[in-house]
Amino acid sequence: MSQLPVPGRDTVYVWISRTCGGQPEVTRRLLVHAGVALLGRDGSELSVEREARGRRVRGGGVELPVSVSHVDGVVAVAACRDAPVGVDVERRRPVPAVALACRWFDPAAVAWLRGRPDADRAEGFLLLWTAKEAVGKALGVGLRDGGLARPVPRPDGPGPLLRPVPGGGGLWVGHPPAGPELVLAVAVGGAPREVVVVDVGDPGHEVAARSASVERTSLPVVVRGS
Q: How far apart are CA 63 and CA 45, in angstroms?
């Protein structure tokens, strides 16, 4: 995997990899890559640890906040040098959106889904679900303690990429483009910031998705969150 050109302290980076198997190994490689890119350490100096509040990458006495998500052969790893971060990825697919929302979501989210055209409800449900997952991971609690009922900003209408989470203690969440088959959510603490999404495809073959057209390019795309 290639190095990021200029790792930014105020930037959230997300690496997405497709794999037919061996997800734990791919996950570890992406986490080590994040540490090399953002901490400036050699891979041999880094440790990847799993704790109650999530994974951590450590090297040279410095800790890198990271987050991991898996779904059906896809691994996503997010990292930010100076703030808690959460990531969640789902494949776009048909789901009984209203029925699931009535079971799991808060009444306001259910009402928002009911107000969408039928053809858009599955997408809307996945946008809300991934946002709630990402926020829970950034908080270090996942979906425990009523996480699916936790309010998140509605993912529609004009506005910045990252939006403040109601009552979220300074968290921001949004949905960077991740290709036509995936729904990706990223949450970060502190302040809205840039989000860089790098699609590594199969491990060892790094490409990037252009946010406006989902066109492949030779450089990571920078999706501005402010």
A: 12
User: In terms of Cα–Cα distance, which of 151, 153, 155 is closest to 126?
Assistant: 155
Q: For residue 137, which amino acid is it?
A: K
pLDDT value of position 54: 59
**Is residue 197 within 8 Å of residue 177, measured between CB atoms?**
yes
Over range 179-200, report the average pLDDT.
93
User: Measured between alpha carbons, how far is residue 9 from residues 115, 119, 198, 219 in Å?
Assistant: 39, 40, 17, 19
The pLDDT score that the predictor gives to residue 8 is 61
The pTM of the full predicted model, rounded to 2 decimals, is: 0.83
Q: Which candidate, 129, 72, 69, places its Cα nearest to that of 95?
A: 129
CA distance 212 to 177: 8
